């Protein structure tokens, strides 16, 4: 089972969103993310958050149609998307896809990227996607596989102070037993050289960002 979290940031065009969400996905809306669901004609499984940016009539309509509602106070330690991810992980999904997690609030965008570790600690693959970027986490153990076309761009950035044993094959600039450190972002703008890039690390946490400047990113 795949769980899609629809948060309230910039979510791209409705046609793009409709192409990403699959039939059978469990859909969790974060506060204003329910507005996107309404425009797409989707009935969320759960709407969660402090509801400070969601139209009350939209919330009432979804409640009457059977969507589960979990409301939290505005003053709390967790962000609404953190609460949504905790709910998603409690359902033991095979994968979590987070949409609407990036936008004009850089603090919220960065906080959402950090949430990938929460999923990684539970052993659940998770990614943040918008029309231009797909962000996932590489952890020690099983290599991460990036599929793409030759010439497509991807970047690697450390999420921990240091990442050791970085190996990259299938890329224009391969790496062997490299070390990445915060403050030295030399993993920017590598390129796919084959139909499959393999990335592995020995220790730390590494962000993998696949880029599509044409705005056609999807996760099908």
TrEMBL record:
ATP-binding recorded as keyword: yes
One of the record's GO molecular function terms: ATP binding
InterPro entries per UniProt: Thi_PPkinase (IPR006282), Thiamin_PyroPKinase_B1-bd (IPR007373), TPK (IPR053149), TPK_B1-bd_sf (IPR036371), TPK_catalytic (IPR007371), TPK_catalytic_sf (IPR036759)
Keywords attached to this entry: ATP-binding, Kinase, Nucleotide-binding, Transferase
EC number: 2.7.6.2
GO biological process per UniProt: thiamine diphosphate biosynthetic process; thiamine metabolic process
SMART domains found in the cross-reference section: TPK_B1_binding
Domain Thiamin pyrophosphokinase thiamin-binding: from-to ranges: 141-207
The keyword ATP-binding is annotated on this UniProt entry: yes
NCBIfam families, alphabetized: thi_PPkinase
Protein name, per record: Thiamine diphosphokinase
Higher taxonomy: Bacteria, Bacillati, Bacillota, Clostridia, Eubacteriales
